[in-house]
Specification:
The protein is an alpha+beta fold. It contains 3 helices and 3 strands. 37% of the residues lie in helices and 23% in strands. β2 and β3 form a beta hairpin.
């Protein structure tokens, strides 16, 4: 599932230059895990819909952050 603002773009063309984290899960990203990550973003990243983008497919969850501080915090929490 892509961020709402980016359905018209391929992932590579969404916010180039932003800080990217790619999470790999052994089998696939469950609905619960997806919701848990999105909940974390909404709770911890100010205006998260404006300052980060995400994409989820099968066993991969990708997130791009506008600010390095958010990228580092996410990486320390989830990476």
């Amino acid at each position: 599932m892509k961020s709402p603002a980016d359905y018209a773009y391929s992932w590579e063309n969404v916010k180039p230059g932003w800080h990217e984290v790619i999470l790999h899960f052994p089998d696939y990203v469950t609905v619960e895990k997806h919701d848990e990550i999105i909940e974390w973003l909404s709770t911890n990243i100010g205006k998260f819909e404006r300052h980060c983008r995400w994409y989820c497919e099968d066993e991969t969850f990708k997130v791009k952050f506008r600010y390095e501080r958010d990228y580092i915090w996410f990486k320390l929490t989830w990476g």
